[in-house]
Amino acid sequence: MTSSEPRIAPAPPGDGYRHELYPYRGSEEFLEGTVGFIREALDGGEAVVVAVPENKANLLRAEIHDDGAVRYVDTTTVARRPGRLIGAWQEWINEHAAQGRPVRGIGESPWEEARSRAEREELRYHEWLLNRAFADGPAWWLLCPYDIASEKAQLERMARCHPAIRTAGRSEPNTAYDPQAPFDFSPLNHPCDPYEEFVYTSGDLPALREKIATCAEPLGLSGRRLRELHLAATEVAANSIRHGGGQGVLRTWSEDHRLVCEFRDAGYIADPLVGRSRPTRTQVGGRGLWLVHQLCDLVEIRSTPGEGTTIRLHTELPG
After folding, report:
1. What is the mean pLDDT of residues 125-134?
2. Is the pLDDT of residue 286 over 70?
3. Are 315 and 254 in contact (CB under 8 A)?
4. Can you say whether residue 238 is alpha, beta or left, with left for phi > 0 and alpha for psi between -120 and 50 degrees?
5. Which end of the chain is more exposed for a tag (fewer CB within 10 A), N or C?
6. Domains and CATH numbers, the chain
7. Cβ neighbour number for residue 247 with a 10 Å cutoff
8. Bridge partners for 24 per DSSP
9. CA-CA distance, 29 to 23, in Å (whole number)?
10. CA–CA distance from 316 to each of 148, 225, 259, 280 (Å)?
């Protein structure tokens, strides 16, 4: 799928963007690394956005009493859909940049809330993509706390997503980060058996939507959520037909209390940020996969030259 979405060349983070990993263990170390960071920003007149799970926000509110100067965002809601996070950060940062204020952010994804390997992988991919998304953007500093006490913690892999790392109260360049290295995705898991398969080409979009409905309705997925899935699936399949060799393969199955629709074709998507940045009002094209990210609960995109593209759309089932 050679998409019509806008392209960017690979680039390291811009001089104005500072992206720092803060490994910690437990609540006390979390506060040690974050409270001083916020107070220093407030003393310097900087705007502060704290996007963390609500239990961590409550810890900070107890220490930062003038929290009216700090914007808190509960990531247990926002980050359950990782494909929307870069767009959210862009809105928060641009809002303050328009006022001429430097910005500091604290961003911690709800790793403990991630119910599947796919969710955790997309959250980590988001951390890596932030470096590209803000390579040429306004100057700001993002501190990313990461609890290494979690049984799902993978510090080595997280470190590869951050150009700087904070240890013992000091920030240092992170030698594990390589701005030119491709993101090290884990292989996609095999579709759950049984799964349905449907080859589609030009003129097959109505049949494709009917195929999805046949799989969705016995699982209780209907009404508005099914219509949203149909819209997202139509966009992805149309791109396969238009840019991926004229045809694609749909597979559907259920796992982790979600309906998964997988689309495979022979094309290639060059831009890793495709669909993650909000389109501008004057932008021509580039809205399709942005819409897909807004309609689905999780979107996985894997694309390799010569091997083709796989896109998985996850939709949570009722109940």
Report:
1. 93
2. no
3. no
4. alpha
5. C
6. 17-173 (3.40.50.300), 196-316 (3.30.565.10)
7. 16
8. 147
9. 9
10. 29, 9, 6, 29
